[in-house]
Automatic annotation (TrEMBL):
UniProt-annotated stretches for the region Disordered: 1-62
Membrane topology: Multi-pass membrane protein
Name of this protein: Virulence factor MviN
Subcellular location as annotated: Cell membrane
GO CC entries: plasma membrane
Record's keyword annotation contains RNA-binding: no
Organism for this UniProt entry: Streptomyces finlayi
Ranges of biased composition (kind: Pro residues): 19-35
Amino acid sequence: MNNTGIESGPPVEALPDHVPAPPAPRDQPVVPDPAGPVTDSAGPVPDSCPGGTETSGDAESPGLGRFLARAAAVTAGLTVAGALLGLVRDQAIAHLFGASGASDAFLIAWTVPEMAATVLIEDGMALLLVPAFSHALARRAAGTGEKKDAAARTTEGTDDPVRELISATLPRLFALLSCIAALLALGAPWVVGILAPGLSDPRLAVDCTRLTSVTVLTFGLTGYLSAALRAHRSFLPPAGVYLAYNVGIIGMTFALHSLWGVRAAAAGVAVGSVLMILTQLPAFVRLVPARVARAGRERRPSARRRFAGAAPPLLGATVLAPVVIFVVSRQAQVLVERFLASSLPAGAISHLNYAQKVAQMPMVLSLMICTVTFPVVARAMANGDREKARDRVERDLALAGMVVLAGTAMVLGYAPQIVEVLFQRGAFDADDTRATADVMRVYALGLLGHSLVGALSRPYFSAGRPTWFPVFAMATGLIVTTGAGFAMTHRFGVNGIATANAIGISTAAMLLLMGLGTRVVAIRVRSVTLSLVRLAGAATVAGTAGWLAAPRVADPLLSLAAGCFLVPLLFLLAGLALRAPEVVQLLTLIRRRLLHGR
């Protein structure tokens, strides 16, 4: 269920979350953090520190730590801004088209960019190309010296490893994705027939799918530029791509909806995807030199021996295939939901979509924590420090659980008020609000599972070797979702689909949690589970209280404002009463800051 306004965002995966990890042994490629090191420079990524001793994250200068914190804050701000603009986009579509056959047609067509974003921008492309560019940068540094002025290397010559990598990969990628996009446009009727066979009139969905099919190419180029920039330690342009994307959708929708109807929104997806490329292109041209000087590029003998026969890391399918299949199978839950909902009355797909968009926000916020700390886990794993990795993973799971369960309590208590404030206007009426709020409350039951799947997958893929267990866990969850969906959709409608989603993703999360200790990091599963159970108890108390209190205030905006104070307060008090360690630590930290100012 990766269907947020961030297109998940970076989606969520697009935070500047690193200190560069040390290299793996030559026979074991490491799966790095997709984001790459954070800086404004285009400096190379060294394989190790001088003297052959790997640097430690604890040994970094305070200045670097402050810089990383500022960079993380700025990029997180852009991520949140992209999510908020995505919410404005959804409000615009709801206002103009409501929950109708037209909005269903657009959402079916939107399945294409959703899948493309997951594979081509967020996970697959990044995990393939960030290490490849980093390897090329290291070869460049070995041949020219790390401190050589970049201007001296940008005159004549063609033997720059970065340029060689671009020449070898970008034209082929462009040709491949162009062919796929063209085939998708030509086969749009067939694609719509598979995604939503229950549509009575699929022509509008076919038109929209043809417009959105271009994102296979544009998202692929966006992901390529993002990977190159992150490897060059430039993070702000990649973080701003979803702002540009949503600006394109909103602008085209309002400008042309009276002429093209919902096709204007589909055209906006195409225009927004082009803006994503243009957002990064100037930085890419500036950081990646067109030509490299031959003069002064005599390689040191040690460097020549060092890179002789070294294969570019992660350019094969051995490590990439499990990652791509995992993210595609996770996104496939949306395909299952829309397939099942296409046989229900018009508007069902829209109700599911609006409910997901809002209910997922706590999950997105919880995964920001894990995204920022992911390089710490990867670095500890590369250093063989399993104890440090275990402690970090356990803390991440607890913190992510606390954030997502607090948000779950808010969704359970105030779903009708949230939907009414955000969407009830124009073509989106009170009946749509009630239906969407009901689905949103059911979806909330699976938010912890979604958050845990996102958090637990990172340690698996930071182990530096191919691993298929996350694919097995996600495939099992998908089978459960599909079976439960077919069993419950006819009787319970969209609520049955949402219930199946919650059951399936929770199954996948349980398998990942149980398998992590034996395959990657020996976390204390019993302790983590007990902590999450206590937090779930606190969320139940706070959510129930909000459910009972919300109708007592007639104005939805005032009721929601009161809930934003009531639910978190009750969550903390209930967590304290249940002795949830994370709540106790949070309250202790708050008290210390208030009393001592530190």
